[in-house]
Amino acid sequence: GFATPGSGRKDLTQLGRARDKMLGIKLDRVADSVTGQTVIDPKGYLTDLNSSVRVQNSSDLQDIKKARLLLKSVITTNPKHGPGWIAAARLEQETGKLVIARNLIMRGCETCPKSDDVWLEAAKMHTKEQAKAILAKAIRFIPTSKKIWLAACKYEETIEGKKAVLRRALELIPHSVDLWKAAVELENPDDARVMLSRAVELVPTSVELWIALARLETYKNARKVLNRARKAIPTEPQIWITASKLEEANGNIQNVETIISKAVTSLAAHQVVIDRDTWLQEAEKAEKSNSKITCQAIVRTTIGIGIDPQDYKNTWLNDAEHYQSRKSIETTRAIYAHLLVNFPGKRKIWEKAAQFERQYGDSTSLDALLKKAVHYCPKAEVLWLMWAKEKWVSGDVDGARGILKQAFAANTDSEDVWVAAVKLEVETKEFARARGLLSKARERAGTERIWMKSAQLERRLGNIPVCQKLLEDGTLRYPSFDKLWMMLGQLHAAKGDRDVARKTYRQGVKKCPKSTPLWLCYANLEIEAKEYSRARSLLETARMKIQKDPELWLAAINVEEKARNKKVVKQIIAKALQECPGAGILWAHAIATDPAPARKSRSYDALKRCSDDPHVFISVAKLFWLDGKQRKARNWFNRAITVRPNLGDAWAWFYRFEKDQQRKSKIQRVLKKCIEAEPSHGARWCAVSKKVENEGSKTEAILKLVEETLPRDVFEV
User: Fold this and answer.
1) What is the pLDDT of residues 357-408, one digit of tens each?
2) DSSP, residue by residue, 96-107
3) pTM
4) Which CA distances in Å does 41 have to 26, 38, 44, 48, 636?
5) pLDDT digits 0-9 by tens, 301-329
6) Distance between CA atoms of 575 and 552, rounded to whole angstroms?
7) Contact indicator for 453, 485 with CB cutoff of 8 Å
8) Which residue, of 273, 485, 569, 613, has the fewest CB within 10 Å?
9) How far apart are CA 351 and CA 145, in angstroms?
10) Are the C-beta atoms of 84 and 71 separated by less than 8 Å?
11) Which of 495, 472, 496 is nearest to 484 (CA)?
12) Around Cβ 238, how many Cβ atoms within 10 Å?
């Protein structure tokens, strides 16, 4: 037939929409694979399907008729089979035929008078008064059925009525723990104590009853009860653990370790297998019940059972991580304490323990731990620096200086200690002290990092001639240290001496041909001067010396964008992705430069190539942001900062996003987490944080400054 005019265009439009929808679904699926979770709950899905089934048509009715015939056959051929009567009655009840259901179940009671399940089902299907009569009849047939007595108790409305039922039940079934427990719960403490005393005589093997009795007794009597319990059930660890908790609760801390130690010895003598994992779980339970000393004693006594001594360290570290992930703080602390007793000279363990205390402890516990740490590992500079930092953060600057002085004594001429001491003085604005320390450090430690810090301080204080002299001397002393060449080149460029800066960079790349940042500084100098051909040539040379470097490719793309060579930009992006297919920074740039309709497709390709790259995550977050899907955008931003918390650019975009949503709580949350992460990487972040005027600024200030520099168009490059 004849085509309608414009129908082809309409079909193409619909096809484009369908394609976008499919790409959106694919991005969601990739999101699932990134987090390792799926958004569909199979069990819940099936439950929903199940709950939606109703008798709606003739086929459903046919199914019910078939079920009725089948169940009739069951109760006819095997009338003594209780579950058959229950199933038949329930079918009638479900289909709304309650009278038939009741008649069926009562016939079941007559046919199977010894089946407590049939009697209980009958009680459920009748009114409360009828149920009481049915259960009374049931008791005549099966007077020793615990289930029937407990059900009869529930149907009693008064406490006295319940007590009377349970007392009669206990006369007939004196050895039922469940009946004793139900009866005790109805009594006041004094009567419960009397009742439990009788219960443990009749059921001496019930741990629950012994422990319940001990809890109701005075301290002295509770000890006697638990001693009797141990004799009655010598293979039960819970009695020993309860005894330990009792001593702790009454202030007899010294007895706790002895009881747990005796417990392990006694249980082993009675052929009880001592499983360390089970005991560690008991330690966790003790912590939850606020018995910290018992928790620690259990850990110390049982954590090494069944493990080869050479596996102690790794196994215990894994234990610590496991219980920390479960938020069992005291159990984790006890494991670390045991580790440190057995491995006092292991720096890594002290570091992990200190990180744990910083997160879950207080300043006092952390200070005490680090004090011990440097005593056992005096050569571990990182522990000294952690201790000094904690003192400084808590406001004790003199204390931090004292710690660093001790660190100097233990680690003569250590570069890290010198740098930490200088940082302390700079942060507290004691610049004269900092300069004096750096002068001594250059004489005694004399490393390239010390020279760089010296130059940075003078640059910050505005002493440009001194800074230049330090950098010139530094490049002569340490010609292979690229940062000194970069600082010297930037200093000349800032003064307007472009030719001198160019000469400096030229010398630098000869000495440090593998330094990507140095090549980028050199290229940026030419880009700023609009010498695009020079910049292009430099970057080509750099890529020959440093192959498959995404940052150099990105710089080459930026050169062509500055020169407005759009066709060349596309060609270079294609080449760059071919050479560096796993470079998220290049994929993110490609997404940004693509026209809007093509971005989803490109994002999907990027996620397939690099599934854990924060730059790609940021780009996907921006796509959802522009589509108005705030929750999905927030999820992708969260992924970006989780994968690389030190990427400042990710934090800046996340902060901008939350500001755009105008939710104060969310804005403050991002700000707080960013301060905790202390980011230091990212092109936009470094461009702001490394400016001379911003040196020494706090993370919060830098974040706000970087956010202000972000373009209004989220995909502007």
Assistant:
1) 999 999 899 999 999 999 999 999 999 999 999 999 888 999 999 999 999 8
2) T-HHHHHHHHHH
3) 0.72
4) 18, 7, 5, 10, 21
5) 999 999 999 999 999 999 999 999 999 99
6) 12
7) no
8) 273
9) 60
10) yes
11) 472
12) 16
